[in-house]
User: What shape does this take?
Amino acid sequence: MTKFSEFGLDEKIVKSVERMGFEEATPIQEKTIPIGLAGKDLIGQAQTGTGKTAAFGLPMIQKIDQKNGDVQALIIAPTRELAIQVSEELYKLSYDKHVRVLAVYGGSDISRQIRSLKKKPQIVVGTPGRILDHINRRTLKLDNVQTLVLDEADEMLNMGFIDDIESILKEVPSERQTLLFSATMPDPIRRIGERFMHDPEMVRIKAKEMTALLIEQFFIKVHEKEKFDVLSRLLDVQSPELAIVFGRTKRRVDELSRALDMRGYVAEGIHGDLTQAKRMSVLRKFKEGKIDVLVATDVAARGLDISGVTHVYNYDIPQDPESYVHRIGRTGRAGKEGMAITFVQPREMGYLRTVEQTTKKRMQPLKPPTWDEAFAGQLRIATEKITEIVTEENLADYKAVASELLEKYDATDIAAAMLKMLAKEPDQTPVHITEERPLPSRYGGKGGGNGKGKGNYRGGGKGGYRDRNNSGKGRRGSNSGSRDRRPNGERSGGKGNYKKSK
Ligand code: ADP
Ligand code: MG
Assistant: This one.
């Protein structure tokens, strides 16, 4: 493992990296940073959450001439969320060097962006459409770009941005360094490499190197009908600090988030049909710890940097192993431990084996928790909470009344009442989840299509998603009535203060 001080980066940059709390370079950073510094072109293949931004960002920042007000580096990213995320990371990495970073993306006021562009950003991160728009309006000049990055290139391909990208590439001086990152390498991406890059170096971080260390992987064999009760109990027993539940379709995501909400969990869903604003607000709430369970389709969660996820639940096993690797990559990041639990219908066991062949790691079987175990889990959490308050908080104001209570009632009864108030009984509220058929038992044969069937990240689609029955688009938040059912609705302010306060 390499320390950041060993790459020959400016002191100021190393200082910013330290400020961010990075101790050692990740594998992709270790390989990419020297190539980046040497000015060579590069094609990097690695899954989400491996630290690609710093991998291309640090050499890029090193090369920025602060005295020059031209745009010197351009990063193209598939979505607004990603563009914002990358720009925030670059801003932090260049904090001590004082580089100006700007994100430009659609769906946001263009005249404000034009004003920001006039302030001479040195690094611009943007989505393809908006970058082209600014090029055409002559509000973005790229004649002095030295470094060009295509981030999540396969995703841009899936979203149909390939022509836009080619148009942008033609606007950037050919005497530049180009770095391309992609989780998969379908042919059109390779061709970009051949056509627009000079003798690129290939860096590939294999999925198995990434998933191995910190993520405990389990599977539970469960029939479709029982999945939801098993999920509720798991949440009760494990009491995850931050959890993501992955569902195969948008309908699933809607139904699951509503059902979880009905059973008293603080859950929200994201998928591609939600508005930009809604997705952003859900993500923000999740990052701030205001939502305990995020329910998502693959595509909605892809590439987003959501850190601190402790548990990933695959409500449906993904169709292809790469999706699985992406999903569980949401947890166990940056040195933190994580747990992934995959539900498998008996007929889908073949898929599980295929996933295991890819990750080269066996998943451990897990038994669905019983009601008693779920209840015990909730009691344990309530007890931890009481212990924490007793030992750490100033209770002076409560003691007088507490003594009165103790005179009237037995101490054990009072403690029991407190537990009853705090502990959430495993909730059996009936919910409706539309059944999905198991995946076809023969794996493969995806029939035609480009990208070797990897396009499944698009979420939705497969698995017979129809709009019927999806009574509630944009209906989240209207089910507020269920919230009162929580014995204790308040959440502690500080992160990780109490694990869960329901
Ligand atoms: P990717 O683009 O590969 O999905 P990111 O660049 O978004 O990954 O990084 C994922 C997360 O890991 C970010 O929160 C980032 O700050 C953090 N990170 C990156 N490099 C390191 C490192 N060397 N040590 C610890 N955390 C890191
Ligand atoms: Mg990234």
Summary: The chain is about 40% helix and 10% strand. Residues 443-502 have pLDDT under 50 and may be disordered. Residues 371-392 form the longest helix (22 residues).
